[in-house]
Design a protein that fits this description.
By secondary structure, the protein is mainly α. The protein contains three helices and no strands.
């Protein structure tokens, strides 16, 4: 819903493009032009969380974060 706000979209793209920090968030699975641009950026990792894989994904995300520290 926030991606319908042009100022919010601008800030998100600025943060993602310029940040050397780890940013963890949620993103819509459905296709949207602005969201698809974020998904395609280099350095972006997408994790599909489900009830069946939540334990494995949690461990995978933790390991990936540790690699960047």
């Amino acid at each position: 819903m926030q991606m319908l706000s042009a100022p919010f979209e601008t800030v998100i793209h600025e943060v993602i493009s310029s940040s050397k920090h780890i940013i963890l968030g949620t993103i819509c699975v459905d296709s949207h032009p602005s969201i698809d641009k974020i998904k395609e950026l280099s350095g972006i990792r997408l994790y599909h969380l489900s009830e069946k894989n939540r334990e494995v994904i949690t461990e995978r995300i933790t390991n990936d974060i540790h690699k960047f520290l």
